[in-house]
Amino acid sequence: MLEYDFMRNAFAAAAIVSVVSGLVGYFLVLRGQTFAGHALAHVGFTGATGAVLVGIAPLWGLVALTMAAGVGMGAMAERLAQRDVAIGIVLALSLGLGLLFLHFFTAYATQATALLFGNVLAVDAGTVWTLLWIGIATMIVLATISRPLLFASLQPELAEAKGVQLRRYAMVFLGIVALAVAECAQIVGVLLVFALMVGPAAAAQQLTSKIASGLLLSAGLALAEAWGGIALAFYTDWPSSFWITALSAAVYFLAAVGRIRRA
Amino acid sequence: MSAVELSDLTIRLGGREILTRVSLRINEGEFIGVLGPNGSGKTTLMRAILGLVPASGGLLNVLGKSAGRGNAAIGYMPQVRSTGQHLRLTGWEFVAGVVNGHRLGLPFLGKAARAEVERALDLVGASGLARYPLSEISGGERQRLLLAQALIGRPKLLMLDEPLANLDPHYQGEVVALAKALQRELGVTILFSAHELNPLLGAIDRVLYLGRGQAALGTVDEVITAPVLSRLYGAAIDVVHVKGRIFVMAGGHDVERDAHRHELDGSHAPPLIGAPHHHA
């Protein structure tokens, strides 16, 4: 299957994105902010469709709007807690606006499906390079802040006492999550970001209680699920996003059941 | 040099005056029990010492410097301790995450930092616990890990905010004994807040009692008296000594207990639980 350009691009894109989302997802799960990842993906749909409407690549619309929303959510973290209804309504509005933008755009159905559910087999070489640069930037920032971020996640009151600016790290981290979401959406679409960003990380946290091995395992599982999904899609002709979500769910539930049986 | 010095300190929080022109001095190496009714400012005072709550007036000096954020010489065990309960991480990782946690970089530790984690775990007797995931150990065991976190960085001042809350009497005694051992071995100053005095008797050097914006600092015999506490509570208070234990009563109620344990409402008799601590 690697004789085809589109397959090589798909595998390359999936490799970049799954490592980024596996590592970012590990911190997202650790901090108990998985819902924020889901929310950012919804907001991204408005950005992507808006970009299509004004004639730029959907990826940049995704990046711009998820970044703005992520940093905003980080800044308002305390005020957003316990506001499930308000957040839910904003998320619904995001999808609604995305739908409206698509309504004004002609290539309606294909675009919508690709944005919502991903179409990794349509990723071209240029997009792979873009994903690589965004991925590298994301990884550099995450590596730089990872120690204080971990401290702030494990023990926020003590971290604050030791001089860690909690809000600053919440904002930078959700900015990173926003970039990871934008990348992820290229592979599995905005609706299924959970599968690649949260599934492998949550499974890794069931399987190991050490941070270094958890990070490696999270990235490794994400990579295996993404590549496995693409390969299965090639041989079955079923959508790759379906296979990735199926693998993600299977790995997570096996890990959870395995841990319960060990305990 | 004093560990903590307040002169004419006033602290306002959300329009309410928590401390009003309070002056006192805590010496280095002292073990201070911090008591007072709910909302009397025990946590706020600790947060002010950490530089997280600004003074509205007066001065607050900590270890010879004006109180400011990120003072590495302070170890702190916060009262909100829900974090960690559901984490699948080991106790070791939980404590290791604190080492140099305020500095940018990757969270992987070198040899010296690993030794620092081992030392803190040893000091609280949690070396054996550290390999289990946090979600699989008891509340009392988790408390030891939180204390180990507070010891990272070799603080000179250790502030423990309600470390006895939600612990059964057996563990309460252990935590107090552990804090006492740390004071002796490391020579650290300890501020230990609690809502009941009795578990601390015999361990503390002096007591700091807060109430209605005022504070009284002194030995138990000096502070836990009807006139002093009546002033701090703003109500007539009786102090009853029973077999080496002390009960602070208002109109027949044990106010220290009632303020925090509503399920015991109406129990006028001295509570029967709690290991006896004989007051020297």
Low-confidence runs of at least 5 consecutive residues of chain A: none
Q: Roughly how much helix do the residues of chain B carry, as a percent range?
A: 25-40%
Query: Any idea what the radius of gyration of chain B is?
Result: 19 Å
**Biggest contact:** A-B, 29 and 37 residues
What is the second-level CATH architecture of chain A? Orthogonal Bundle
Model regions low in confidence, pLDDT < 50 over at least 5 residues of chain B: 262-280
> What is the mean predicted local confidence, pLDDT of chain A?
89
Distance between termini of chain A?
42 Å
Q: What percent of the residues of chain A sit in helical stretches (DSSP H or I)?
A: over 70%
- The CATH superfamily of chain A bears the name ABC transporter involved in vitamin B12 uptake, BtuC
Short description:
The complex is a heterodimer of chains A (263) and B (280). With 263 residues, chain A is mainly alpha-helical.
